[in-house]
Structure formats: structure tokens, C-alpha cells
Amino acid sequence: MRAPVPQGRVSSLADAVRALRPLLSAQGLALGLAGTEETALLPGGPAERGLARCMGAARRQEFLAGRWALRRALDAVGCPAPDISYEGRRPKVPDRTVASLTHSGGTAVALAARRDTCRTVGVDLELHQLPLEAAHLVLTPREAGWLEATAAGDPAAARRLLHTVFSAKEAVFKALAALPGGAASPRTLRDIAVRPVPHGFEAWQHGQAGPVLRTRVRWVAGAVLCWTVLPAAG
After folding, report:
1. pLDDT at res. 5
2. CB-based contacts of 156: which residues, under 8 Å, 6+ apart?
3. Rounded to an integer, what distance in angstroms lies between the CA atom of residue 227 and that of residue 214?
4. Residue 90: pLDDT band by 50, 70, 90 thresholds?
5. Is the pLDDT score of 77 beyond 50?
6. pLDDT, tens only, 93-144
7. Helices in 89-220 by DSSP H: which ranges?
8. Which terminal Cβ of the chain has fewer Cβ within 10 Å, N or C?
9. Within the chain, where are the H helices?
10. Are 174 and 123 in contact (CB under 8 A)?
11. 151/211 Cα distance (integer angstroms)
């Protein structure tokens, strides 16, 4: 079990993400934030109460922080969701919206947009790095070559690269899985390929005729935040 993140670190991480609000807004995205240290996190209704009832205290607080972050993002696009259940493995949001949720280090981050402006969105926040030994679970053979070349000269840079690619692929995985119309979604992160571009990556799914997703990367208070959005006209 990971040690709890100090409250000051939670607050600074949330503040660093909050500073990205203008950039996100320019992409048509509303930001919602919540922290597990908030004392007034209560279930929004019977669906959330039922889900939270069987959880331990720490997991319950993390779950509720995620629901509150998502609720705040949906409120910001004018589509409130007082009680958020699940639809498959994803939170069920109003039909007029798309949204994505992530949490790490006691901070929950949600992005939401109206469906008439955005086909899908994905977000991922990662505070803790993966060990290099786990790279085979994330990288394609071509990407593994990047990592090997980087590790030969700078192991710390290689860990940072793996951290970033992992988070970017997590965001893309969520976005592809939420695409409407029954589009095939990736089974693992290795089904997603990336190539570096300024400020992030372009990503796509192997063997599919689907979209290429531009994925933004930002380092915030020692964590990496990645998000991707596919405009309705994309």
C-alpha cells in the first residue's frame, strides 16, 4: 500500500492543475477538481450511497472525490448530474455530455464537454512512476526502442519518459473506449501507438481506421497530467 500523500501536497497538486483551466477552456473543456482531504464529500444520491456503502474509508473518500470532481465539471458545462452511477466501467453522465475522470495522490480531476462540440475526451493524472521493468506492459516495440536508447544515457530520463507515455496512453485509452457508435476499443495500452509532437503526443489504435488523437502533456507539482479531446468535427 502506498503511503498517503500529505495534505499540503494534495493542495499544491490541485492548485497546479487549476492553473491549466484557461488552456483547457480554450479546447472547450470544463475542469472539475476535488481532494480526498475535503470534509464535506457526501454521496449525491441513492446510486452513489449504494456504491460507497461497501467501500473502506480510504476507497470511499477517493470515490466520492471523483464523483464531486465530475459533478463540478458537468455543472460548468450546464449539465448537472446530482447522482452519478456507472455505465459499464465508466461513470454515467448526461447524454448531452462527454466526460473523463482520473485521480492520483488524493486529487481527483474531471474534464467535461458538451457532445455537440466534442466526440470524446480522456484524462489521466499520475503521481507515481512505473518501474522500467513494467515497460513491456505499456510500450510497442518501436517505443521500447526509444526507452532503451534513453536509458543507456540517462536512466532517470527513461523513467520520466515511461511515466509520460503511460499517462498519455491511459488518457487515450479512456477516450477511445468512450467513443460512440460501437467503435472497437483497445484491449491493452500496447494496442495504442504514440509519436512525439510539440507539447505531447499523437496517438492511434493499431489495426483500426479510427482517429489520431492529439494528447497534451503537462507536469504539475511532480505529477504528470495528460488529456486528449476529439472535437465533434474531427
Report:
1. 47
2. none
3. 9
4. confident
5. yes
6. 999 999 999 999 899 999 999 999 999 999 999 999 999 999 999 999 999 9
7. 141-153, 155-177
8. N
9. 7-18, 21-26, 46-53, 57-76, 141-153, 155-177
10. yes
11. 31
